[in-house]
Automatic annotation (TrEMBL):
Species annotation: Magallana gigas (Pacific oyster)
Protein family: Belongs to the glycosyltransferase 47 family.
All residue ranges annotated as the Exostosin GT47 domain in the record: 85-372
Cellular-component GO terms for this entry: endoplasmic reticulum membrane
Protein name: Exostosin-1
One Pfam family this sequence matches: Glyco_transf_64
Amino acid sequence: MQAKKRYLFVVILAVLLFIVYFGSKSDRKHGEVTLSLQKREFPTYMESEAVDLSSPRRRRESVTSDFKSGKCRMDTCFDFSRCVRGFKVYVYPVLERVSESYSKIISTIQESKYYTTNPDEACIFILSIDTLDRDILSVNYAKNIMPKIAHLGALWNNGRNHIVFNLFSGTWPDYSEVLDFDTGEAIMARASISESRFRPNFDISLPLVGSTLPPKGGERGYMYTSINNIPPLRHYLLGFKGKRYLTGVGSETRNSLYHMHNGDDIVLLTTCRHGKFWQKKAKELNDTRCDIDNREFDRYDYKKLLYNATFCLVPRGRRLGSFRFLEALQAGCIPVLLSNGWELPFGEVIDWKKAAVWADERLLFQVPSIVHGLSQPEIFAMRQQTQFLWEAYFSSMDKIINTVLEIVKDRVKSYFSRNSVHWNNFPGALSLLPEYSDVLHTYPSFYRQFAYKSDNQFTAVVYATSPVLLSSAPLFRLIRTVAKSTFVQKIVVIWNCDTPPPPSYQWPADLGIPILVKTKILRSVSARFYPYEEIETDAVFNLDEDSLLTTDELNFAFKVWKEFPERIVGYPARNHFWDEAKNAWSYTSKWLNEYSMVLTSGAIYNRYYNFLYFNTLRPAAYHIVERLQNCEDILMNFIVSDVTKLPPIKVTHRKVSKETMLPGKAVTDPNYYQTRFKQRQGCVASLTEIFGYMPLVRSRSRMDPVLWKDPVSNLRKKYRQLEVI
């Protein structure tokens, strides 16, 4: 008996020793696994340049750094003192090949009004290192980022005041959001970012965009290009066509969509026919739906489904974001989002409740009842909002990057920041400069929305370039004509002549209105559009010194402008056309039944456009005008049409609106006018390239007074002088 007990004791002791020995080895292996996970969780460098995290001190430093950057806000990780001299953006010199998308980002910033080549005056810094795609399997994956950042020296400053752009993070199989390099305290502009990793009012969420997105301009919203947009409901209620993942991240939702597909008003199509070994995987997983899904998938054209669906399902893919989000916006199809935890693009400023529907991935089968529950007025309003958001912020890389810059600028200059109304109403925050006014109804686009009535006066701006030799000079005659108007508040003469202006006693007297002469502000044709402080009225009537307009014409144009305060209203009209021989847009002065420009030698418009002319222009557009001393009127039409998406308005039927020749302004070169005309043709082509698209809109409308040219007594007509034109 005692022998049995001793034997049992020895066996138990041996087992315990065995467990202790192999358990300690297992713990050591487990520690190695934990350490490996820690390296993935808190990366400092990419795999090929990993930092040794074996010591507890190194691990604590890595965790502490990640924790600090995760708590970054503008007041803790941004140096506002660098922005005291203005909001300027510096791009590091590009020393290596970058992807097509990142090249568009750099070009957009370099063409921006905020760009500077001097890092000492910069408020914001942009890396020349391509950080867009951090999928190690991608051909656009940039290696050895940390050593390259180290070469930036003191300017990097642990990422302070830097914006780092990223579209793709992580790789198969987990597609982790954790980047493989240390971003320090940089602002992250990222696509597919989750709410848990997003730092509010510091990071910026981007849309997922492909390399086909144009650098400038971009495709118009489908509702604006299609003929009939009413009724708001389309042929399909809900549509989707895309990949189905058999396993892994993002597979759960897409694998369940076939349950809602009815082939009638709800068409949700998926295919597992992608990747090299999809058939093998389907066979291994015993997925019997692949063949059925593929046959149904091939029956529908994606574009037709997209443009004929009222709602478009936007489920998450391998990452939270999806290319279908922007595709749905452009098509005027209301996105139905199935991506729990996704921080929507520019969600800091855009109210997505007005344009998209949130659904829960866990409650997938509630989607049909959600979309059925929206009324037709709600649907139509949301579809209109998708078009506005697409054209204002997402139609090109230029719009996306400038939106990023404007968001950061609003944070830096909070006293000039735009509110939700600016961002979520036409024409959008990129066209509304807060420096102009802090009162919304002073912007022409908001006149009707706020029932604002502009003042009943205008300021006449007369552009003078020739010396005045006689009291009967065209300039003085025009001043007397303008002064007879009951609506003019003051006359501002822009003196752009080599000889000094006449002394004050020679100017017309007893006019009842002040005359201001500007001589030293800006020696340029653009001086006529300078936002002078003396212009206090909403309306600005811009005139050339040799204009032949009568007082009745001035009054009538002003009355028409009061009805259309967001447009240019005037007399001399021109048009643009596509020149097949040059394969470019061109300019014509032919007398046609349609027009797209009203020249500012006799036009009235809102003074806000003067502010836009000098504060939003890309430097390249302004340089064209300065180099040629020509085309400033064409550029103003481009600006106004770009903002309003509307044509100008021509009034009455006047062919000749200016003197044929002024004294002292003789032209010795017989080819002068032909050269000037060719310059204007070239301007239209160049400005179209700078804007990225043709913003001018054609019109066949003309505003005439009541009873104009009617065979009735002249006493019954209000604008009698118009009859003798």
